[in-house]
Description:
By secondary structure, the chain is mainly α. The chain has a domain at 127-230. It has helices at residues 12-34, 54-60, 65-68, 83-90, 101-107, 135-139, 145-149, 166-174, 193-204, 209-219.
Amino acid sequence: MANFFPRWTNLLPFKIALCAGSVAIGVAVALAYYATPKTLTVGYQPSQPIPFSHKIHVDQLGLDCRYCHSFVEVSGHSNVPTGNTCWNCHQHVQKDSPKLAPLHREMDVNYPGYDGKPIQWARVHKLPDYVYFNHSAHVNRGISCQSCHGRVDQMEVVYQAEPHSMGWCLECHRAPEEKLRPLEEVFNLKYDAKNYVEAHGQSLGVKTTEELGLKLKEQWQVNPKTGCATCHH
Length: 233
């Protein structure tokens, strides 16, 4: 009796298994990239090439966020400082600390092992590639660094303080008045809305933090969109 199936079907199960395996690997890679602590898990805290303490630099020394993250007010993305920014101080301060060896290898031509290569900081906060977020649009309308990144000024090692999920973002978009603060307080990580109202409420014509938020929302015409196209361009 003649074979009913053509010869090429002998490889069909192998091809199906190969395709299924490729899909499974693709799903696994996608989950590993987008569903890791780097994007979803509160508390993600990678080690850095230099143990930079925000508590020392921001809380104790009083450095403004914008000294290092200088693009945050004018760009969609907040920049990580270059070696030059660190070198401005550390060519004079704590210059013999072994912790600063990666900085010396990048900046000091007389340092043994100098290679001029930029410091490879480990990224802590990362949104999926399909999500559009503009830093300047938020900080220039009264959304503080603290709202998304927590009390960074108290962190010895920076970690992810908020989930940055779609639902979390939508909560703010639906009630922005709860997060808005005066522009001069955006980079003040010790800001207390109640104390601000007690000090300035009379001149602003507000008596509560809720009234302050609503006033700022009306003043700046803040009306965040909540549709898919807001973030998924």
